[in-house]
Write a structure and sequence with these properties.
The mean pLDDT is 91. The protein is mainly alpha-helical. α1 crosses α2 (24-46), α2 (24-46) runs antiparallel to α3 and α2 (24-46) runs parallel beside α4. The chain has a single domain (12-105), classed as RNA polymerase sigma factor, region 2, helix turn helix motif (Rna Polymerase Sigma Factor, Chain: A, Orthogonal Bundle), CATH 1.10.1740. The termini are far apart. The radius of gyration is 17 Å and the shape is elongated. 78% of the residues lie in helices and 0% in strands. It comes from Chryseosolibacter histidini. One of its GO terms (biological process) is DNA-templated transcription initiation. One of its GO terms (molecular function) is DNA-binding transcription factor activity. This is RNA polymerase sigma-70 region 2 domain-containing protein.
Amino acid sequence: MNMLHTKSGRSDDELLRLIQQGDDRAFRETFDRYANVCFSAAMSLLKSRDLCVDLVVEVFRSVRANAAEIKDLKAYIFDRAKQLTLAGLREIARKYFEENELQGQDL
């Protein structure tokens, strides 16, 4: 059970319960609590502001879409951010190798 509180005094568990009930303020509070952390962690690996903004949007889109199934809000957010960061790294690597393959053919 996650008991992290912010200035509103709400724990992650309470925020999750409220999000599951459709509370937009609780969703916004959760976004405010975790978006920068997700962005910074992803940015340290992806080095692309645009990719990281997209990643954060997708993490929170997923929170809203899957709220009913989420058991641990913080764990879900960080796991989803990790999955998307790894997918971003794979995409960067794929593009890099494709570009280098094409350059190698020009020789």
